[in-house]
C-alpha cells in the first residue's frame, strides 16, 4: 500500500521541529556547563569535587592546575555559612 504524498510535509515538519528543539536544548546545556557535555550519574564525591572546583575557579566545570590555592580559598568554606543547630 503506497504512502500518500500529503503525509510527507507534516512528518517533515515534525522531524525538523524535534531536531531544532533537541539541538537548542543541547546548546543551552553546553553553555551552562562551560562548553562541556552534561554530567550524568554523579555521586557524593563528584558533587563535593564540583563544589571545591567552584570555590577554586568560580565555575562548576572549571579546574585549576595551580598547585597553590588562592588566598580566599581558606575562608570561603561552605561549613562556615551553614548554621549548626
UniProtKB/TrEMBL annotation:
Transmembrane segments: 7-28
Record's subcellular location: Mitochondrion inner membrane
Pfam families: MWFE (PF15879)
A single Gene Ontology CC term: mitochondrial inner membrane
Keyword rRNA-binding: no
InterPro entries cross-referenced by the UniProt entry: NADH_Ub_cplx-1_asu_su-1
Main location class: mitochondrion
Annotated region (Disordered), positions in chain: 60-85
Membrane topology: Single-pass membrane protein
Keyword annotations from UniProtKB, A to Z: Electron transport, Membrane, Mitochondrion, Mitochondrion inner membrane, Respiratory chain, Transmembrane, Transmembrane helix, Transport
Family stated for the protein in its record: Belongs to the complex I NDUFA1 subunit family.
Function: Accessory subunit of the mitochondrial membrane respiratory chain NADH dehydrogenase (Complex I), that is believed not to be involved in catalysis. Complex I functions in the transfer of electrons from NADH to the respiratory chain. The immediate electron acceptor for the enzyme is believed to be ubiquinone.
Protein name, per record: NADH dehydrogenase [ubiquinone] 1 alpha subcomplex subunit 1
Amino acid at each position: 500500500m503506497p504512502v500518500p504524498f500529503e503525509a510527507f510535509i507534516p512528518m517533515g515538519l515534525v522531524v525538523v521541529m524535534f531536531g531544532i528543539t533537541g539541538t537548542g536544548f543541547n546548546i543551552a546545556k553546553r553553555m551552562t556547563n562551560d562548553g562541556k557535555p552534561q554530567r550524568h550519574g554523579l555521586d557524593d564525591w563528584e558533587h563535593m569535587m564540583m563544589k571545591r572546583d567552584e570555590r577554586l575557579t568560580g565555575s562548576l566545570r572549571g579546574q585549576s592546575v595551580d598547585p597553590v590555592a588562592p588566598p580566599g580559598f581558606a575562608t570561603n568554606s561552605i561549613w562556615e555559612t551553614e548554621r549548626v543547630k
